[in-house]
Amino acid sequence: MIMDYIWAFVIGGLFCAVGQVLIDYTKLTPARILTAYVVAGVILGAFGWYKPLVDFAGAGASVPLTGFGNVLVEGVKKAVDENGFLGVFTGGLTGAAGGITAAMIFALCVALIFKSKEK
């Protein structure tokens, strides 16, 4: 049980460390790195390589942006199986709807609680 937490921490930390190295030693902007993480998750999920990582590392692999890309792929796969080609367009949002909704609700709550300031 404790090893599950340790592996989640290690794998999640590696994702963060790679992102930090990319920020420090390349001219990539954070937005491009975040996009690359999502695309990497999509590619790994499409080939079926991300699922074993999630099974091994749990939240350490499912919570980072690569996990979001994997959720998009899984949603598309399921929707294509159920609806055919139309699932390509609807599956990603259906699969990630819970996470997107939670992010929007949390953002609204923070916006209502705190007052924004100019820099």
Descriptive notes:
The protein is mostly helical. It is 83% helix and 0% strand. The chain has 6 helices and no strands. The chain has helices at residues 2-25, 30-46, 50-57, 59-62, 65-83, 87-113. Helix 2 crosses helix 5 (65-83) and helix 5 packs across helix 6 (87-113). The longest helix is centred in the last third of the chain and has 27 residues, at 87-113.
Overview features:
119 residues; mainly alpha; 0% strand; globular
Helix-strand layout with pairing:
Layout: H1 2-25, H2 30-46, H3 50-57, H4 59-62, H5 65-83, H6 87-113
In short:
Helices cover 83% and strands 0% of the residues. By secondary structure, the protein is an all-alpha fold.
* Overall geometry: globular
Kindly state the mean pLDDT as a whole number? 91
User: How do the SSEs run, as a string of H and E?
Assistant: HHHHHH
- What structural class do you assign from the helix and strand content? mainly alpha
